User: Fold this.
Amino acid sequence: MADDHRDAAPDHPATGLLARLRGSAPADEVLSRHDCHLDRAEYADAVPLELVSGEPLVGLATTSAGESFQLCGGDERRPVLYYDDADSVLVLGRDLAEAVELLIGVPYLLDIMHTLAGRGPAAATAEHEELAAQGIAADEARSRERTHHRLAAELGLRAMPVADLLHRLHGTAEELAPGLEVLWVDGGESNPIPHAVAPQA
Assistant:
């Protein structure tokens, strides 16, 4: 089980994580390196996505290419969604804490999402290992790992292995996708956005 590999840390805080994120230079550095830019939240707010339930979506960040991260209800205890350039959404975590653990812990997350959706977490983990080996020197990898653990502790989160994070992501997305129907609403038209990872029919 993934929990067996988690660092000891306080239970997920119900509130205050977003403020700590926005006030943390290390968090900004790590997330920006992973192409999640908190200073571009207003661009995420401009993306015309809505939940069928009527619950609002609040922009958290965007990538350098404009894909967006959205918090359901603006509530840190609610799920976080990622909307990508393939016109699909992915549940990143059942709450903001899970999503941030994923975003700080999987450097090449955005590069392996299609593998995760199509071939599952084991294949995505293998691809991530290949990308990390090609893109990060050994000394730098060790330095980033130490930074990851320090940042997780600073934020009151858990530093988990990539494999555990991706398995949890896949399971959470399959579980929550049916209850989070997303629409693209623009020009008076509403079109459903499929989930990249959802239960098999």
User: Anything to note?
Assistant: The beta strands are 49-51, 57-62, 68-72, 80-83, 89-93, 182-186, 189-193. The radius of gyration is 16 Å. Residues 12-180 form one domain. The chain has eight helices and seven strands.
